Structures are given as C-alpha cells and as structure tokens.
Amino acid sequence: MSSAAEKFELEKNLSLVLGKPVNLHNPEVLKLTPDELKKIYHKRAKELHPDNAARTGKDPVYLTTKFKSLSESYSYVLDFWKERNFSSVIRNSAAAQAPVYTRNRTRTHESPAGKSQNTKQQKVHTRQKDPQENSFEKRFYNGPMPCFQLRFAQFMYYSKKADWHTFIKSLSWQWKVRPRLGELAVKQGLLQNEDVLIILKNKMPDELFGKAALRLGFLQQKDLSILLGRQHLMNKPIGQFFVEQGCIAHHEIDHYISQMRKYNLHIRTRKKN
Cβ neighbours of residue 42 under 8 Å, at least 6 residues apart? Predict the structure, then answer.
C-alpha cells in the first residue's frame, strides 16, 4: 500500500474510533496514547453495543453494524501502532510526494527513517497492553438471548460459548482475513490503484466501499455483484476462528450453525405473528 493510501486508511479508521473526523497532522492526534485510545474505544463500544437496542430504541441491526465497524477500526489502529506511530505515516507520505534536490540539482526522494525509535515504542506499548487485555478475557454474557437475528460470532457470545474478548477478536480476525474489495477490483482490472484512493477519500462515513464505488461511477452493479461473489468465496468461515481458540471442536461447527439458524427462524416467525 502506498504512503498516501496508508494515510487515508489510518485517518478513516481513527476517525471511526474517535467518533469525529481527524487529520494525522493534528497535534492532539500525535499526542494520543494507546491507553487514551482504549478508554475512548470502550466508551463508544458501550454506547453502540447491540445489547442497548431495547433500552435506547435503536435498530439492533444498525447498532451491530456500527459496533462491528468500531471494533474493526480499533483493531486496525492498534495493530498499526505496534509497528509505527502516526507521525511516521506523515513523514512517509511527505517523503513520497516531495522531491529532494541533491548538490547537482538531481531530484530524488528521501527514504523514511526512524525505525529504532518506533521499535522502542513498540516494546513500551506491548508492556502496557498485556495486563489490561487479560482482565477482559473471561467476561461471559449472563443475560437472556436477544430478540433479534444473530450472526455466528454473536450466537457464540450470546449462547455463552465464547467470552467477550474472544468475540471481539473474532470480528477483528474476520476483517483481517477478508479479501479487500478494492484489491480484488484492481486484480480483475475493474479499477486502478488511483481509483481506489479516490473512492476511499470520497467515501461517506459508514458507507461500504462497493456502494461508494457505485455512487461515484467507478463500478457498475453487475461488476460489484461479481466482486462480492468472489469475495464471499474467498472468505474464511468464522467458525474456524472459534475452533482455533478452543471454544468448540471442529465437528461441532455444523451443530451450532444449525442451532443459530433455528434461533433466527424462531425470531422471524415471532415477528410475523
């Protein structure tokens, strides 16, 4: 990914976590710490959690989508922070765009520096993170089953087969292993890398990449349908994650999928009546 694309992606995900548009050049962003970011994330996660649907009167599907986007964005920013910091992206982006003149007036581009400092920051963040993560590992749901249809990861959590931390990790895992629609479009020759950058830059908050590409005229509906079908075929089943985490055995996946479908059918039937 180019420096410019990396900057756009980081700003987009950080904006979703903070709940407001941000720019990496903002001094407040550059001074942000992992602990502060985590506090903001947990505060927003409580507000957007699907369990609040009945209390707030908001659509559970809407809250589930918002909550998932928040969790994925937080995971993206946190994973990025393990390797580098925000200022490194600004330096890399500036270095990629601004030419540097040597003594003989030859235009060259500087290579990004500062790896030793980033490595040091990575060690600090790791020491601060582990004790806090452990305190969230065994928070199992203890309420009644919700009155809305569930996806597999949600069903694992609400049926008490997976704790809260594992549930969040499953969403992050699914996001990481899912093929990116923009990358698939480039490989299929439907988009150029420059097109992907323009779509990301002009995408509205919470708007899916494919919907934005349609709205902006970069893709036709038939092309998007083909890309979504290919993306679906390349997705890894999320049940694989729960098997790897030891929540269920491999031969139990079909059983829990069947139970989830029965539950969702029960919810649909009850709503019709």
Answer: none
Taking the C-alpha atoms of residue 20 and residue 173, their distance in angstroms, rounded to an integer, is: 25
Q: Residue 93 in contact with residue 33, Cβ under 8 Å?
A: no
Tokens of residue 153, six digits: 């990861």
What Cα–Cα distance (Å) separates residue 150 from each residue in 1, 215, 219, 237?
Answer: 34, 29, 31, 16
Where do the domains of the chain lie?
A: 1-135
| More confident site: 119 or 257 | 257
Distance CA 169, CA 136 (A): 11
Closest CA to 242 of 231, 229, 255: 255
Token pair of 192 as six digits: 């150029």
Nearest Cα to Cα of residue 129 among 204, 34, 198: 34
Report whether 156 contacts 56 (CB < 8 A).
Answer: no
Distance CA 185, CA 192 (A): 8
0.85 exceeded by pTM: no
Under 8 Å CB-to-CB from 142, ≥6 apart: which residues? 160
Q: What is the mean pLDDT of the chain?
A: 77
CB atoms within 10 A of CB 129: 16
Cα 189–Cα 193–Cα 194 angle in degrees, nearest 5: 120
Angle made by CA atoms 35, 38, 39, in degrees to the nearest 5: 90
